[in-house]
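Regression test case RT-17, inverse folding.

Input:
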């Protein structure tokens, strides 16, 4: 059993507590300064220890710590953890600025630590399948990639006006909070972004001024990308389409369906995907991270890759 410390048990931290426990491979402890929230989590889940302060938590021995605090705190908290020689799993986005990232990377290297960033889409079987199509080259080179995504943020995150989301400095707004996901897996599939241009605005969401709509044109070397998100449409839909020289591959997230087509005007060839609810998806991510801790595999998203996404995001901002 690996000893995992979850730092920050708000919305996503609580899910990580539940999903690391669901692996059956981890003992989970938490660090959460909000005492009400801390006692709620300790009542609801069989956590081993709970701390209100990271310094106290880091006096114990951990196999890894998962940083699930607002984005502007990721780097200082991760640095404190790395200084203690503890492996890291950091929520997306890596940060909101470049400050301290070089120091964190140096520390991770000096201490030979594992440091992964929890861009959960890389742990989705649909993205995994698209990646396999890119890697095996069956349709030739990837020429065009489009990602269209939208969902009703107030429906899925009713507290959005009370959290970091309201403030760009804390990682708020659609670019840092939402678009960061497709940007990250776009780079996973097509390679690093080499050029980018974007348009964004606040169009609809009540009670905030940050942007809720973004359009991006990107270049990944020879691959042309086009990415759009909004956070207020009724359908919760995301479609990823990869057009290669000799074939097209598509992942429709909302239908949990992958497919490919090579005949002009033909029909889709479906690729079966496992049925997975959100917790199963995060449990899969947790299992893959535990595999990395057991040195069975490499991180799905490294610090360097998450830094690439941060740089693209900062260019847009
Ligand atoms: N992968 C995903 O799908 C996904 C979904 C939601 C959020 N996130 C990311 O996870 C992070 C947290 O988001 P959230 O929605 O859970 O936020 P949240 O505001 O619900 O929770 C953050 C928690 O961190 C705690 N915290 C703040 N400073 C702390 C510190 N120094 N030490 C310990 N705990 C501290 C807060 O008390 C709070 O409970 C953000 O980076 C966000 O972008 C990822």
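Golden output:
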């Amino acid at each position: 059993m690996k000893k995992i410390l979850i730092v920050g048990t708000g919305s996503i931290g609580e899910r990580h507590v539940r999903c690391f426990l669901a692996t059956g491979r981890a003992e989970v402890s938490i660090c959460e300064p909000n005492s009400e929230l801390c006692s709620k989590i300790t009542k609801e889940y069989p956590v081993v220890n709970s701390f209100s302060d990271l310094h106290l938590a880091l006096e114990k021995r951990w196999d890894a710590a998962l940083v699930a605090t607002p984005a502007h705190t990721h780097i200082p908290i991760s640095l404190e953890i790395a200084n203690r020689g503890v492996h890291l799993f950091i929520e997306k986005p890596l940060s909101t600025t470049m400050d301290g990232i070089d120091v964190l990377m140096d520390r991770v290297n000096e201490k030979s630590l594992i440091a992964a960033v929890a861009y959960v889409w890389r742990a989705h079987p649909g993205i995994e399948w698209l990646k396999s199509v890119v890697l095996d080259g069956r349709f030739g080179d990837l020429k065009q990639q489009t990602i269209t995504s939208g969902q009703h943020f107030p429906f899925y995150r009713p507290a959005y006006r009370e959290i970091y989301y309201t403030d760009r400095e804390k990682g708020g707004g659609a670019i840092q909070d939402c678009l960061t996901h497709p940007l990250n897996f776009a780079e996973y599939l097509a390679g690093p972004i080499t050029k980018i241009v974007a348009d964004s605005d606040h169009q609809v969401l009540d009670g905030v001024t940050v942007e809720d709509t973004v359009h991006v044109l990107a270049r990944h070397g020879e691959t042309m990308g086009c990415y759009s998100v909004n956070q207020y449409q009724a359908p919760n839909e995301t479609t990823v389409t990869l057009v290669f020289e000799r074939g097209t591959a598509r992942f429709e997230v909302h239908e949990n369906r992958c497919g490919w087509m090579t005949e002009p005007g033909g029909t889709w060839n479906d690729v079966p995907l496992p049925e997975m609810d959100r917790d199963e998806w995060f449990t899969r991510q947790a299992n893959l991270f535990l595999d990395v801790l057991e040195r069975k595999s490499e991180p799905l998203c490294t610090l360097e890759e998450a830094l690439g996404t941060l740089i693209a995001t900062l260019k847009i901002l």
